[in-house]
Design a protein that fits this description.
With 267 residues, the chain is α/β, with parallel strands linked by helices. The chain has helices spanning 44-56, 70-73, 76-83, 159-170, 188-209, 217-224, 233-249, and strands at 8-12, 25-29, 34-37, 60-64, 87-90, 99-102, 107-110, 113-119, 128-132, 137-141, 176-179, 185-186, 254-256, 263-265. The strands form three sheets. Strands 1-2-3-4-5-6 form a six-stranded mixed beta sheet, covered by helices on one side. A six-stranded mixed beta sheet has the order 7-8-9-10-11-12, with no helix packed on it.
């Protein structure tokens, strides 16, 4: 990709939306034999374009998914079949014959380059980032996005794990973050620090909003996300729930027993 590295090429999937931005970024990495990262939706025109680009670069050695959400994973089986390449996913999701089970620290060869698998739970339990040490590039999937923040939807989404994973990737020697949605991000450490600060600020707002009476996270959305588009408020409520669960696990607030929507209060 111009300005980043000759090993990198992006093909944008035609699935724009409130959560996907302009669409899913399908990334090709390597020369001679490439890794295809996040094939995106099951859209044949998009998959044809990805397969054509991979063949022009020498063929695909592997198709890799950062996590299982459909906007990243749905087209992966079809593309792997088209390219005659194995599909590689997080080991706890690898259940079918022919799927390669990836674990933290694995190295994936891509021609003369390679990627290191970095397990980054938080957005999902199976989320992986892929780090190219020689090129100083981190493919960040939905862990770090451009122009927006990741949705943390419990129980699979975990705010404490997300913050820990952010701290981990901040310490990698990356010069570029290539996200699953949006434009490439320069100054990775600055971007990650801003994300961590944003999440901690939101956590402080949750603490300030709670009192002795039980409150559901969905009741906090109107005040904390004032002015946001209506279509994102359900996702905002789930991220607030993730914040509340983290705070409750830390003993800073308490979860009120009962059925239905979770409610929280200050002790």
């Amino acid at each position: 990709m111009s300005g980043i590295a000759p090993e990198v090429e992006r093909i944008l999937a035609p699935n724009p939306g409130p959560l996907t931005g302009p669409g899913t970024n399908t990334w090709l990495f390597g020369r001679g034999e490439v890794l295809v990262i996040d094939p995106g939706p099951l859209d044949q025109q998009h998959l044809d374009a990805v397969a054509r680009a991979a063949r022009l670069r020498g063929g695909a050695g592997m198709v890799v998914c950062t996590h299982h959400h459909p906007d990243h994973r749905e087209g992966a089986d079809r593309l792997a079949e088209m390219l005659g390449a194995p599909l590689a996913i997080y080991h706890r999701r690898a259940e079918r014959s022919g799927e390669l089970a990836l674990e933290d620290g694995d190295r994936l060869l891509a021609g003369e380059s390679w990627l290191e698998v970095v397990h980054t739970p938080g957005h999902s339990q199976d989320h992986l980032c892929l780090f190219a040490p020689r090129e100083h590039i981190l493919f960040s999937g939905d862990h770090i996005l451009s122009g927006t923040t990741s949705v943390i939807w419990p129980p699979e989404g975990d705010m404490a794990a997300y913050l820990d994973s952010l701290a981990r990737v901040r310490d990698l020697d990356a010069e570029w973050l290539l996200p699953g949605h949006g434009e490439p991000i320069s100054e990775p450490r600055k971007a990650v620090d801003a994300l961590i600060a944003h999440r901690l600020e939101r956590e402080g707002q949750v603490l300030e909003a709670l009192g002795p009476d039980p409150v559901a996270p969905s009741q906090l959305v109107g005040g904390l996300y004032h002015g946001y588009p209506p279509e994102v408020l359900e996702y905002a409520a789930q991220t607030l729930l993730a914040h509340c669960i983290k705070l409750a696990n830390e003993g800073r607030i308490e979860r009120v027993p009962g059925e239905g929507e979770a409610r929280f209060r200050k002790p």
